[in-house]
Design goal:
alpha/beta, two-stranded antiparallel ribbon, 9 helices, single chain, 11% strand, Arc Repressor Mutant, subunit A
């Protein structure tokens, strides 16, 4: 299904790059998925030019049928969603928020005590709200999205975390780099290139890190890796 979605988006946009932007993946990932279908079918679906792609006759035929198929699936989904929309609130949030904060508030109540059922999508990916997507999202952000209604929940702060044996060998902020630093990749939150280490080192009047020993997708994993490896997480 992922391969078919990649092909459909690429055919609709006539571009691997635009399809990748819609699906929140890289253009190379879209190209790989399309290649898988072409290998299975034994024929090319696109004519690949220098800066563009065009559907082959086989690709155009597949696209027509897929469009009908996806329309049928979407219609069926929306019909069931309308019947069920009063029963469930779909919320997407990072696993750290749900696991360490929200579950403590929700789990003591039974389903009959809650006004509605909450369906959790524990994901870092930014997904469009509404339609078949989530009704609400809890996300880290530098600034609120002006196209959505938003309420600030908390202002996070950052501090280095390390094992006690590593801390005993650390006297100044400049010593942290000797143990190896773990960075968190916020690109799935739609914030490419952001790192908490650079402003923290700037506050200590030190140069930002030149490299990291490890990059993790979320803070929970970074802390777990700090315990396992002796590196320093933020």
């Amino acid at each position: 299904m992922n391969a078919l979605r990649s092909f459909e988006a690429a055919a609709r946009h006539q571009s691997f790059a635009l399809a990748a932007a819609e699906l929140h993946v890289s253009p190379a990932a879209v190209g790989f998925q399309v290649k898988r279908i072409e290998e299975d079918l034994g024929c090319p679906l696109f004519v690949r030019k220098h800066k563009a792609i065009e559907l082959t006759p086989e690709g155009a035929k597949l696209m027509r049928q897929l469009t009908r198929g996806f329309d049928i699936i979407e219609t069926a989904w929306q019909q069931i969603e309308v019947l069920n929309q009063a029963k469930a609130l779909k919320v997407t949030a990072p696993v750290a928020i749900v696991k360490h904060w929200l579950f403590d508030e929700i789990t003591p109540k039974t389903n009959t005590q809650l006004e509605m059922r909450i369906s959790w999508d524990m994901s870092q990916l930014n997904r469009r709200c509404g339609g078949s997507g989530p009704d609400a999202a809890i996300r880290y952000a530098i600034a609120p999205d002006r196209t959505l209604f938003s309420e600030p929940i908390l202002k996070p702060w950052f501090t280095p975390l390390m094992r006690p044996d590593v801390a005993r060998k650390t006297e100044t902020a400049a010593d942290l780099g000797k143990h190896g630093l773990i960075n968190v990749d916020y690109s799935q939150d739609g914030i490419d290139g952001l790192t908490a280490w650079s402003p923290w080192f700037a506050a200590q009047k030190l140069a930002p890190p030149a490299q990291y020993e490890m990059v993790c997708a979320d803070t929970i994993t970074a802390v777990d890796m700090a315990v396992e490896t002796g590196y320093v997480a933020m």
